[in-house]
């Protein structure tokens, strides 16, 4: 048995190659908590109503747990939390929705599930069945855009002041490199910066795990038996997979590369003036940087293919009814 280099007592479950030390689950948890709470301290405001985007996967489950611990240990801040799952309607999601519900219940956090089918009028499973193999986009591409828009609309209609997401260091470096390679500066800034603006219908994002490695998250979720779904989404494909491999290779050769890359990109993005010019989509009314939002562009081509009209405002009736209920207990 390899013993933890920090406490010298418990069995090590994780090796930090950049520092050359091995940690037990307790010491790893303390280290991750310290980094996550630093982000929450910097970016949350007293009285915040927090929607945690809780898919039931490992990252969002740990993010919910750490955010709840933070709120409980800062009662003077009067933070309230609701856990929200957007159900894309895939067989893959069914198990994780149940795990999300279980973890939220265990933590005493109100949990709500809203279906993609209910909000957008189509599910990713339907797309997966309907689209031919040689279709120009994968279900994953549609899912990412439609899920992100649904989540923001739900959070806004629930009256949330921030959305907490489970994005870890690996996710953010991959996304930043993808945006860099596309030359998409405004997407790069959005990924790296936290901005409070309430005039646009876009609920600001807080990412407590942004300085935490994916490997640390996975180790903690397994070692501490946190209710979370560990599988990868079977629809993931495209550019991200290649970029992930390249960045992982760099990290193997020079441990700490991901952290340094994110720090450098964050510093650069502070110097860039925000070029994110938000307005309302002409078709659905959701916030966008273009005349017609990406979700509506996608829904337009899918409407043609599926032979039914998917365009128009999102269906948020049930969300609006939930607005007053969800915050009372949290
Ligand atoms: Zn230890
Ligand atoms: Zn739109």
Describe the protein in words.
- With 330 residues, the chain is an alpha/beta fold.
- It has one domain: Rossmann fold, CATH 3.40.50.
- The protein contains 13 helices and nine strands.
- The strands form three sheets. Strands 5-4-3-6-7 form a five-stranded parallel β-sheet, with helices on both faces. The protein has a two-stranded antiparallel ribbon with strand order 1-2.
- α3 links the parallel β4 and β5.
- α2 crosses α9.
- The model has no long low-confidence stretch (mean pLDDT 91).
Helices and strands in order, then pairings?
Elements: E1 12-16, E2 21-24, H1 25-43, E3 49-53, H2 58-73, E4 80-87, H3 91-107, E5 110-115, H4 116-120, H5 124-130, H6 139-158, E6 162-164, H7 169-182, H8 185-192, E7 205-206, H9 214-223, H10 239-253, H11 257-271, E8 279-280, E9 287-288, H12 294-306, H13 317-326
Parallel strand pairs: 3-4, 3-6, 4-5, 6-7
Antiparallel strand pairs: 1-2, 8-9
Helix pairs in contact: 1-2, 1-9, 2-3, 2-9, 5-6, 7-8, 7-10, 7-11
This protein binds zinc ion (ZN) (2 copies).
């Amino acid at each position: 048995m390899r013993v933890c280099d920090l406490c010298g007592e418990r069995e090590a479950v994780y090796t930090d190659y950049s520092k050359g030390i091995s940690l037990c689950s307790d010491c790893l948890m303390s280290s991750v908590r310290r980094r996550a709470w630093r982000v929450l301290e910097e970016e949350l405001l007293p009285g915040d109503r927090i929607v945690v985007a809780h898919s039931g996967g490992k990252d969002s489950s740990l993010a919910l747990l750490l955010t709840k611990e933070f709120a409980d240990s800062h009662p003077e801040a009067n933070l309230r939390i609701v856990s929200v799952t957007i159900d894309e309607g895939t067989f893959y999601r069914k198990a994780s929705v149940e795990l999300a519900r279980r973890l939220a219940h265990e933590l005493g956090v109100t949990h709500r599930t809203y279906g993609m089918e209910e909000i957008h009028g189509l599910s990713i499973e339907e797309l997966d069945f309907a689209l031919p193999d040689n279709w120009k986009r994968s279900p994953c591409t549609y899912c990412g855009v439609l899920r992100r828009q649904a989540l923001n609309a739900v959070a806004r209609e629930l009256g949330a002041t921030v959305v907490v997401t489970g994005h870890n260091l690996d996710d953010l470096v991959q996304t930043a490199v993808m945006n860099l390679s596309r030359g998409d500066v405004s997407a790069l800034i959005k990924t790296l910066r936290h901005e409070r603006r309430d005039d646009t219908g876009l609920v600001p994002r807080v990412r407590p795990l942004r300085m935490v490695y994916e490997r640390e998250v996975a180790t903690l979720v397994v070692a501490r038996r946190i209710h979370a779904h560990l599988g990868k989404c079977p629809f993931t494909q495209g550019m991200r997979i290649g970029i992930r491999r390249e960045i992982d290779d760099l990290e193997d050769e020079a441990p700490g590369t991901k952290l340094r890359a994110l720090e450098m990109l964050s510093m650069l993005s502070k110097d860039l003036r925000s070029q994110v010019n938000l307005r309302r989509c002409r078709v659905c009314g959701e916030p966008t940087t273009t005349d017609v939002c990406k979700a509506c562009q996608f829904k337009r081509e899918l409407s043609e293919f599926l032979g039914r009209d998917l365009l128009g405002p999102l269906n948020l009736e049930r969300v609006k009814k939930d607005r007053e209920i969800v915050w009372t207990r949290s």
